[in-house]
Specification:
Gyrase A, domain 2, four-stranded antiparallel β-sheet
């Protein structure tokens, strides 16, 4: 029998997926019955292409701000160390389709972002 790792993504065959995609990575039930759902928001093909640090940091700030306008219960939107995407974690039991729709709305806002407008969290005081 093949070893199952404790970290969900270590069990994923990264050669069998095609980016970009939204993938349900895990659903957890807390001790008080709270449902927490974690999604893999993949931008580039694992082990093939990587996002630059600057691009990741910009996406992180903008999405972290605007995803909260689209869906309630957001816990975190955090970059993957491999720089191919992000993890999105929230309270509740959401589907890949629901999360994809929310991210499409956010990405449209990013496409419309004026070059002259300051990024949320850009100032060191923020």
């Amino acid at each position: 029998m093949e070893k199952k790792y404790n970290v969900e993504s270590f069990n994923l065959d990264h050669n069998a997926v095609t980016a970009p995609y939204v993938r349900l990575a895990a659903t957890y039930t807390g001790p008080n019955g709270d449902i927490v759902t974690k999604f893999d928001i993949r931008f580039t093909q694992p082990n093939k292409a990587f996002l630059s640090t600057g691009a990741m940091h910009t996406i992180e700030h903008l999405v972290a701000e605007y995803i909260r306008d689209e869906v309630s219960g957001v816990i975190d939107f955090s970059p993957m160390g491999c720089r191919t995407g992000f993890y999105f974690t929230l309270f509740g039991n959401k589907t890949e389709e629901e999360v994809s729709a929310h991210f499409k709305a956010v990405f449209q806002k990013l496409l419309d972002w004026p070059d002259t407008k300051k990024l949320p969290g850009y100032d060191p005081k923020e």
